[in-house]
């Protein structure tokens, strides 16, 4: 049921570090999403090593079911996207995430909707998605959906909420796309379960659940007792202390997420209150009362919509990004993080285009080693992204006969050819700027890349400083 409002990284010789962090103006990916784009996620959906995007609309249409869309945006690795439509058969899509639920091809798309309950689309071998598979059509008011390995069997499980049923449920996966309903994480209240997120909040290596409620505007933690049970069985126990008791008169929780906000090695909880304007983080400890810390208030963004915890400036500390759910304040801002401390009290702008940023993602969309921002504009039915110019890859322009690497993408070996007589001294950098492979290559010799993980890499000739991107798959 819909209840929401409409150390600095260096790539040696292969990149340029700007003196100040800036983001480009918005670059439109999809100028016409369909009415009311609402849900947004990112991940490698086609298994080619770069980050794609997926969006779902929620067109309430006065309570009359209308056409809603799921679209995904295929990335070419440099931040250029092709628009692909998956489905327009669902309506009132209120949950969206991506995860690898069958171990094949790319990440799969998981959704909740009033028409189909909890369902998914599997990525396939031809770079698209198979028809919808329904997991549970009986959920009353399905909403937020997240995925993770709840029972630590190596397979992806799914958690979602049922607002009308007042419960948070989970389904164990078998790694082949088959899911089985398990005992509920929580149920029996009449508080209107609203949001859920997963994180290891007690440090025992299994995933716990953070749950929020509409009618009380409260936040609770439910601990996964997988390890505590001693029998590799999953059960759930509520923390003795409520994270935040809320107030239906003064609060409207619009988003809850998790992350290490104060960079002390422990996972914290962040809530976004669209009514009071407060974005708050809680430094939690099991069965101990949480202390709220305000990150942003109504004087900065009056109607905040979404928050993400991520290292946006590559200094090794997580920052907190917040978006405007209205059209008056700066659209997306970030608060710089610090070690063992709350984020800065001063906000830095990322974007200001007054599109009502209901949802956004932070990910490296152009494979240059820094995190970019992509968002949906609920006011103008668009998808767009902002390039983080913290790191600019200095890929040399050179004639094709100077140096050629192939095949690209590569699976086992890279072959070098072109007009060079000396030994090539090459270094391979991952997306974080770490050297993962170095070797000397004579003309006609190959470079063994079989041990590299799938992804995008930079290869540099240390003699000439020439660089090239290549994909390992």
TrEMBL record:
Q: What is a single Pfam family found in this protein's UniProt entry?
A: FG-GAP_3
**What keywords is this UniProt entry annotated with?**
Signal
Q: Which residues form a coiled coil?
A: none
Tell me the InterPro entries matching this sequence: FG-GAP, Integrin_alpha_N, Secre_tail
Q: Where is the Secretion system C-terminal sorting domain?
A: 405-471
Cleavable signal peptide: 1-20
Tell me if Signal is a UniProt keyword of this record. yes
- Mind telling me which PANTHER family this protein's record contains? PROPROTEIN CONVERTASE P
Q: What is this protein called?
A: T9SS type A sorting domain-containing protein
What species was this sequence derived from? Psychroserpens luteus
